[in-house]
Description:
49% of the residues lie in helices and 20% in strands. It is of the alpha/beta class. The longest helix is centred in the last third of the chain and has 20 residues, at 135-154. The chain starts with a strand and ends with a helix.
Amino acid sequence: xxxxxxxxxxxxxxxxxxxxxxxxxxxxxxxxxxxxxxxxxxxxxxxxxxxxxxxxxxxxxxxxxxxxxxxxxxxxxxxxxxxxxxxxxxxxxxxxxxxxxxxxxxxxxxxxxxxxxxxxxxxxxxxxxxxxxxxxxxxxxxxxxxxxxxxxxxxxxxxxxxxxxxxxxxxxxxxxxxxxx
Length: 181
């Protein structure tokens, strides 16, 4: 079917929109959740996200091996990946090299796009603010930016979500063609 990638800031409505999209697909649904509840606040966030999902949906909790998790979902089912930004953080915190993380993101995006069922990926856009003060912060921002581009490039549809509203993301090819005229 297709891959849809939703990017946006914290609390912008990305996950809510993803749930609406997959519910509209009318198929069985699996949610691949990448969060790890390592403190009380994250335990509460994870519980809140679980509470938003219908009881019949399957949840695959996988903070690191996203490609394997995608392969474990029935290819006919609709799949939500929530979220790429935590997955990237988990890989970097594990000690994976930035280039290896970027390559893993490309592979996973291709795998998601090849699925016959709809896949909706959720990710944060962190490159719009102040340049991070630390090396690790800048590395995370840069690697996530490359990963987001990979997922959007592989997507049939992509949108930037702001305050629950979307801005469709179009390929720059049309703009480049316009300039060449």
